[in-house]
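To: structure subgroup
Subject: Chain for Friday's discussion

All,

I'm putting the inputs and outputs inline so they're searchable in the archive.
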Amino acid sequence: MYCSRCGQAMDAQPYCPSCGAPTGIASPVAGKPPAPVSPLFTGSRIAQHLRTLGILWIAFAIYSALRWLLILPFLRGWLGANPMWMHGSNPWLYGPFHPGSGLLHFIAIMVFVRVILSLAVGIALLTRQPWGRVFAIVVAVLTLIKPLVGTVLAIYTLWVLLSRNAAQEYERYEFSGGAAPL
């Protein structure tokens, strides 16, 4: 006989010795409580990884914003958008249309969009929104081309959310109203 929650082999017992799930075989003995259920293990791949994914997506958003803020001064210098004291040129010559400023604005907008999408994915997964799984998959596919950190996070997200029966497990934990521990 196998436990319906964790899949462990067991004898005919009223509770699973591994996870404490009731088996429905016999009523428990009055003096013997069931084995404690670990809040971190519910037997579901989604339940084990959903909170970690949400936290990692929020951390990735913060990492992306900080990385952009650290790289921005170097890009400004490389593209020639520094103030007068660095190059000795007249700042009134170009005004707001400095060479490279359009590229910097475009990159800044793309980084801002990535930060917003990453925060939205993290919050959606942590709060188990109905649209969170599909949204996380779409953003993960878009993040696959972000070298190293983004690629690893996207692969981990796709590995968890595209597993077998992931849609049914996500919906079950989504509508449980917080009853299923993450």
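Points worth raising on Friday:
The chain has a mean pLDDT of 76.
Residues 64 and 70 are 10 Å apart (CA to CA).

D.
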